[in-house]
Amino acid sequence: MKTFIPFICSVIVVTASADIVENVVVDTSQAPSNYVVSYTINPPIGYSDCVAYIKAGVSDDNGNNFQNLCDNISKHYSGDINKSLNAGNYSFNFQPYAPIFIQNAKIKITAEITDKFLQTTGAIWKCVAATAPWTKRFHHQCVVFDNKIWVLGGNDINGMRNDVWSSPDGTNWTEVTLAAPWSKRADHQSLVFDNKIWVIGGDEFFGEKNDVWSSTDGTNWTEVTAAAPWGGRYDHQSVVFDNKIWVIGGYVNDGYKNDVWSSSDGINWTEVTPAASWSSRVGHQSVVFDNKIWVIGGYGSGSGVKNDTWSSLDGTNWVEVTSNALWCGRLGHQSLVHNNKIWVIGGYNYYNRYNDVYSSPYGSAWTLITGSAKWNGRNGHQSMVFDNKIWVIGGSEPGIKNDVWCSPPE
């Protein structure tokens, strides 16, 4: 007897758990056969990076599960398939040990969604200030301190800046000082450590800096050291890790660097390694995640733009997590940690500027959150986490910007 399984394609929306009945005409006259179960998922806007545990079973026209009607057959048609739930078409194969001698049977697919994450973050953006009162700029620095966003220095159309601004909401800004005592500069680093804002190195009109400054209020600054031993540099990275300030890579007057330095006070510095395992570079990003320091992308002399990621438990010994991340090689991007993931935001490769956003829970496998955020592709911007949102502030696209964006919008 020639039997068949009717299978009519349907589009389903999964929000928590759902029974997905797909229909397709399958000839089961010859057995065993390979059946391809295909289904389409269009998650509601905002859902991404979920895991769907799919089970395929067989039922009859009345919706009865064949596992109850004929266990010896149904067990050959069941299986759990682990799928990443993103919009798109999916399929999997299963092969019965015997033909299906029942007419008008249906394959029933049940999807149970776990690790559900409302993925508006990084995908949906709101412009909270199209033209902030600070001048359009790039290669500036931003930190979160005293429940405010701070903007420090950078390049504008007139050159380098040493002004400081703060805002409680990204829309309303206060000029804290027009001219801080540290010299005008760009491509420096700023962070928060020991309840102070810090400014570390950078590029000024007369050359690279290796000074370190700190402030408890953004107005009054103390020069912690005028000449740190890591030498004048810019386009480096700095993070706080193990209760120390770290300086990682960058450009010194003798070229690109892959050295790593640390200090518990900003005055006394230790060279943790003169040559880390990752190649010498500038324009990279560093974050602290999973109790490790990370180096993400950048540009190296002779090696071009990078899309590698490295991690270290101590700043000395480094592990290459991936040599070829999903995002293309870039520099001038931003990276941060939010919702237990590392994020890569924008950047450029000397030819194209990007307005894409990626995230990863491990630093190896990456998810594209959006390939076209509402803000234009840019580099030299700043991003941070504030008020449980991701922010993009200023940058070059190539026109210089003083806009402010946040995600999610509410």
Q: β content, as a range? A: over 45%
Low-confidence stretches: 1-37, 39-56, 66-100, 109-118
Which class best fits the helix and strand makeup? Answer: mainly beta
Q: Please tell me the overall pLDDT.
A: 80
Distance between the termini: 60 Å
What number of domains?
A: 2
Give the overall form. globular
CATH topology tier name of the largest domain? Neuraminidase
Helicity level, as a percent range? under 10%
The CATH homologous superfamily of the largest domain? Kelch-type beta propeller
Major sheet details: 5 strands, antiparallel
- Taking all Cα atoms into account, the compactness measure Rg is 27 Å
Return the CATH architecture of the largest domain.
6 Propeller
Under CATH at level 1, the class of the largest domain stands as: Mainly Beta
Number of strands: 34
Task: Provide tags for this entry.
410 residues; 2 domains; 5-stranded antiparallel β-sheet; mainly beta; 4-stranded antiparallel β-sheet; globular; 34 strands; Neuraminidase
Write the layout of secondary structure elements.
Blueprint: E1 4-5, E2 11-12, E3 17-22, E4 26-27, E5 35-41, E6 50-59, H1 66-69, H2 71-74, E7 80-85, E8 88-94, E9 106-114, E10 126-129, E11 141-145, E12 148-156, E13 159-167, E14 174-177, E15 189-193, E16 196-204, E17 207-215, E18 221-225, E19 233-234, E20 237-241, E21 244-252, E22 255-263, E23 270-273, E24 285-289, E25 292-300, E26 304-312, E27 318-322, E28 334-338, E29 341-348, E30 353-360, E31 367-370, E32 382-386, E33 389-396, E34 400-407
Parallel strand pairs: 2-5
Antiparallel strand pairs: 1-4, 3-9, 5-8, 6-7, 6-9, 10-34, 11-12, 12-13, 13-14, 15-16, 16-17, 17-18, 19-21, 20-21, 21-22, 22-23, 24-25, 25-26, 26-27, 28-29, 29-30, 30-31, 32-33, 33-34
